[in-house]
Amino acid sequence: MTDPGSEARAAATLRGGLAAILAFACAGTLVELLLLEHYDGWRQWLPLGLLAAGVVGALVVMVVPGPRVLAVWRALMGLYLSAGLVGTWFHYAGNVEFEIERTPELAGLALFRAAMEGATPALAPGTMVQFGLLGLLLMYRHPAWKAGSRSSR
Protein backbone atom coordinates (compact mmCIF):
# COMPACT_ATOMS: atom_id res chain seq x y z
CA MET A 1 0.00 0.00 0.00
CA THR A 2 1.39 3.37 -1.00
CA ASP A 3 1.41 6.22 1.49
CA PRO A 4 -0.59 9.18 0.04
CA GLY A 5 1.74 11.60 1.82
CA SER A 6 4.72 9.96 0.14
CA GLU A 7 3.09 10.30 -3.28
CA ALA A 8 2.29 13.96 -2.61
CA ARG A 9 5.90 14.65 -1.60
CA ALA A 10 7.19 12.89 -4.71
CA ALA A 11 4.82 14.90 -6.92
CA ALA A 12 5.92 18.13 -5.21
CA THR A 13 9.55 17.23 -5.79
CA LEU A 14 8.88 16.56 -9.47
CA ARG A 15 6.98 19.86 -9.82
CA GLY A 16 9.80 21.75 -8.14
CA GLY A 17 12.37 20.06 -10.34
CA LEU A 18 10.37 20.84 -13.46
CA ALA A 19 10.00 24.49 -12.40
CA ALA A 20 13.75 24.71 -11.76
CA ILE A 21 14.54 23.16 -15.15
CA LEU A 22 12.18 25.62 -16.85
CA ALA A 23 13.73 28.58 -15.01
CA PHE A 24 17.21 27.43 -16.04
CA ALA A 25 16.16 26.75 -19.65
CA CYS A 26 14.41 30.12 -19.98
CA ALA A 27 17.42 31.92 -18.51
CA GLY A 28 19.80 30.12 -20.86
CA THR A 29 17.66 30.85 -23.90
CA LEU A 30 17.34 34.49 -22.83
CA VAL A 31 21.12 34.84 -22.55
CA GLU A 32 21.59 33.16 -25.93
CA LEU A 33 19.13 35.52 -27.63
CA LEU A 34 20.84 38.52 -26.04
CA LEU A 35 24.23 37.29 -27.26
CA LEU A 36 22.75 36.87 -30.75
CA GLU A 37 21.50 40.48 -30.51
CA HIS A 38 17.91 39.36 -30.91
CA TYR A 39 16.43 42.76 -30.09
CA ASP A 40 15.72 44.50 -33.38
CA GLY A 41 12.11 45.66 -33.00
CA TRP A 42 9.14 44.49 -30.95
CA ARG A 43 8.97 41.10 -32.66
CA GLN A 44 12.38 40.25 -31.31
CA TRP A 45 11.84 41.87 -27.91
CA LEU A 46 8.71 39.83 -27.24
CA PRO A 47 10.45 36.48 -26.61
CA LEU A 48 13.03 38.25 -24.44
CA GLY A 49 10.28 39.63 -22.20
CA LEU A 50 8.45 36.31 -22.11
CA LEU A 51 11.63 34.43 -21.21
CA ALA A 52 12.44 36.88 -18.41
CA ALA A 53 8.88 36.53 -17.12
CA GLY A 54 9.27 32.75 -17.33
CA VAL A 55 12.37 32.77 -15.14
CA VAL A 56 10.65 34.89 -12.49
CA GLY A 57 7.36 33.02 -12.87
CA ALA A 58 8.94 29.59 -12.45
CA LEU A 59 10.65 30.74 -9.26
CA VAL A 60 7.39 32.20 -7.93
CA VAL A 61 5.51 28.99 -8.78
CA MET A 62 8.15 27.05 -6.81
CA VAL A 63 7.94 29.32 -3.75
CA VAL A 64 4.29 30.47 -3.53
CA PRO A 65 2.13 28.27 -5.78
CA GLY A 66 -1.33 29.67 -5.00
CA PRO A 67 -4.33 29.55 -7.32
CA ARG A 68 -3.78 33.10 -8.59
CA VAL A 69 -0.09 32.44 -9.25
CA LEU A 70 -1.02 29.30 -11.19
CA ALA A 71 -3.65 31.20 -13.18
CA VAL A 72 -1.04 33.81 -14.19
CA TRP A 73 1.43 31.00 -14.95
CA ARG A 74 -1.16 29.28 -17.17
CA ALA A 75 -1.73 32.54 -19.09
CA LEU A 76 2.04 33.01 -19.46
CA MET A 77 2.41 29.48 -20.82
CA GLY A 78 -0.40 30.24 -23.29
CA LEU A 79 1.61 33.24 -24.45
CA TYR A 80 4.65 30.97 -24.81
CA LEU A 81 2.69 28.64 -27.07
CA SER A 82 1.43 31.54 -29.18
CA ALA A 83 4.84 33.23 -29.37
CA GLY A 84 6.48 29.99 -30.44
CA LEU A 85 4.03 29.41 -33.27
CA VAL A 86 4.05 33.02 -34.45
CA GLY A 87 7.85 33.21 -34.11
CA THR A 88 8.23 30.11 -36.26
CA TRP A 89 6.13 31.80 -38.92
CA PHE A 90 8.21 35.03 -38.69
CA HIS A 91 11.47 33.10 -39.05
CA TYR A 92 10.18 31.02 -41.95
CA ALA A 93 8.59 33.99 -43.77
CA GLY A 94 11.78 36.02 -43.38
CA ASN A 95 13.80 33.18 -44.85
CA VAL A 96 11.35 32.81 -47.77
CA GLU A 97 11.61 36.53 -48.51
CA PHE A 98 15.41 36.36 -48.43
CA GLU A 99 15.57 33.25 -50.63
CA ILE A 100 13.20 34.73 -53.25
CA GLU A 101 15.22 37.94 -53.31
CA ARG A 102 18.43 35.94 -53.73
CA THR A 103 17.05 33.38 -56.21
CA PRO A 104 13.80 34.61 -57.80
CA GLU A 105 13.16 31.40 -59.75
CA LEU A 106 13.03 29.33 -56.54
CA ALA A 107 9.56 27.92 -55.81
CA GLY A 108 7.67 24.99 -54.34
CA LEU A 109 9.55 22.35 -52.38
CA ALA A 110 12.92 23.85 -53.30
CA LEU A 111 11.85 27.19 -51.80
CA PHE A 112 10.48 25.47 -48.70
CA ARG A 113 13.72 23.57 -48.18
CA ALA A 114 15.88 26.65 -48.73
CA ALA A 115 13.75 28.62 -46.26
CA MET A 116 13.96 25.86 -43.65
CA GLU A 117 17.74 25.73 -44.07
CA GLY A 118 18.05 29.53 -44.16
CA ALA A 119 20.15 31.85 -42.07
CA THR A 120 17.38 32.37 -39.51
CA PRO A 121 16.66 29.06 -37.76
CA ALA A 122 13.04 28.52 -38.74
CA LEU A 123 12.23 26.03 -35.98
CA ALA A 124 14.12 27.75 -33.15
CA PRO A 125 11.00 29.51 -31.81
CA GLY A 126 9.56 26.03 -31.27
CA THR A 127 11.59 26.10 -28.06
CA MET A 128 8.95 28.47 -26.69
CA VAL A 129 6.26 25.91 -27.51
CA GLN A 130 8.21 23.23 -25.66
CA PHE A 131 8.65 25.50 -22.63
CA GLY A 132 4.94 26.36 -22.71
CA LEU A 133 3.91 22.71 -22.78
CA LEU A 134 6.29 21.85 -19.94
CA GLY A 135 4.96 24.78 -17.94
CA LEU A 136 1.40 23.54 -18.42
CA LEU A 137 2.47 20.03 -17.45
CA LEU A 138 3.91 21.44 -14.23
CA MET A 139 0.37 22.47 -13.23
CA TYR A 140 -1.19 19.04 -13.80
CA ARG A 141 -3.18 18.13 -10.67
CA HIS A 142 -1.36 20.82 -8.71
CA PRO A 143 -2.71 20.86 -5.15
CA ALA A 144 -2.78 24.67 -5.09
CA TRP A 145 -5.75 24.58 -7.48
CA LYS A 146 -7.79 23.05 -4.65
CA ALA A 147 -7.31 26.23 -2.64
CA GLY A 148 -9.07 28.23 -5.40
CA SER A 149 -12.41 27.88 -7.04
CA ARG A 150 -13.17 24.96 -9.33
CA SER A 151 -13.57 27.36 -12.24
CA SER A 152 -9.86 28.28 -12.09
CA ARG A 153 -8.70 24.84 -13.27
Summarize this structure as a short list of keywords or feature phrases.
6 helices, elongated, 153 residues
Explain this structure to me?
This protein has 153 residues and is mostly helical. The chain has one domain (8-152). It has 6 helices and no strands. It has helices at residues 4-35, 42-63, 67-102, 108-116, 126-138, 144-147. Helix 1 (4-35) runs antiparallel to helix 5 and helix 2 (42-63) runs antiparallel to helix 3. The longest helix has 36 residues, at 67-102. The radius of gyration is 19 Å and the shape is elongated. The two termini are 29 Å apart. The model has no long low-confidence stretch (mean pLDDT 93).
H-E string: HHHHHH
Shape: elongated
Number of helices: 6
Q: Percent helix among the residues?
A: over 70%
- Helix/strand-derived class? mainly alpha
**Intertermini distance:** 29 Å
- Tally of strands: 0
- Please indicate the percent range of residues in DSSP E strands (runs of 2 or more): under 5%
Count the domains: 1
Weakly predicted, low-confidence segments: none
What is the alpha-carbon Rg in Å?
Answer: 19 Å
What's a quick, concise take on this entry?
The chain is mainly alpha-helical.
Blueprint of the fold:
Elements: H1 4-35, H2 42-63, H3 67-102, H4 108-116, H5 126-138, H6 144-147
